[in-house]
Amino acid sequence: MSVAMHKTQMLLEKIQSLPEDRFAQVEDFVDFLKERTAREEEVADKKETLDFPVISVGKWPKDLSLRREDMYSDDGR
To answer: The domain containing residue 26 runs over which residues?
Structure first.
């Protein structure tokens, strides 16, 4: 028996052990979960990629250094 089948069987046994008046609540909750999953999938499908403008300022100078010591003075900051 696969893991999914085992978990399904355990869930069915738990549901069957409930009083009959709770079955409607279980059914409502399952319906809620199905609707929420469908909405989440729909939102995930609709997500658009962000299209930020790209501004090119050309190539960086070859001698550009981004080391802190080269950008700031040695006055202790």
So the answer is: 19-45
Among residues 12, 47, 13, 44, which one has the least CA distance to residue 30?
A: 12
> Which tokens belong to 40?
């989440």
Domain count, the chain: 1
Please report whether residue 31 resides in a domain. Answer: yes
Evaluate if pTM is beyond 0.70. Answer: no
Per-residue pLDDT tens for 52-62? 888 888 898 99
Name residues whose C-beta falls within 8 Å of residue 1's C-beta, 6 or more positions apart in sequence: 9
Euclidean distance between CA atoms 64 and 57, whole angstroms: 14
